[in-house]
Amino acid sequence: MNKQDQLNMIKEDFINCQKVLLAIGDETRQSILLVLMGTDCQTGLRVGEITEKTHLSRPAVSHHLKVLRDAGIILMRKEGTKNFYYINVRTELGLLKTLVLDIDKFMQNFYLNDEILEG
């Protein structure tokens, strides 16, 4: 694969990752994700529990949970009138891994070799 082909692939990776990058780029959402990661993925947490652990207001937590859900990073399970939020183990975060691996491969192919030649 030539340089332009790899750049085009990385451009596609960025496009595929836009929602995820926007969702996890926010510090508040990062703290919510850390709280959710600290729990059992099968059980999840309710908004009130996340509110207690993050010291955010309920409306703020609800808003950020919606952004994370829309990006496919978390899922919600209903139990009667209760909603439980948990990390999506088959998440769109895998797209980030692809992006990083493609960038790493590109750097190794086209930049690390230049440094060796210059050194």
TrEMBL record:
Keyword Methyltransferase: no
Keywords annotated in UniProt: DNA-binding, Transcription, Transcription regulation
Record InterPro entries: ArsR-like_HTH, HTH_ArsR_DNA-bd_dom, HTH_MetalResp_TranReg, WH-like_DNA-bd_sf, WH_DNA-bd_sf
Gene3D superfamilies per record: Winged helix-like DNA-binding domain superfamily/Winged helix DNA-binding domain (1.10.10.10)
Keyword Mitochondrion set for record: no
Residue span(s) of domain HTH arsR-type: 9-107
One GO MF term: DNA-binding transcription factor activity
Pfam families per record: HTH_5
Identification of the protein by name: ArsR family transcriptional regulator
Organism: Cytobacillus praedii
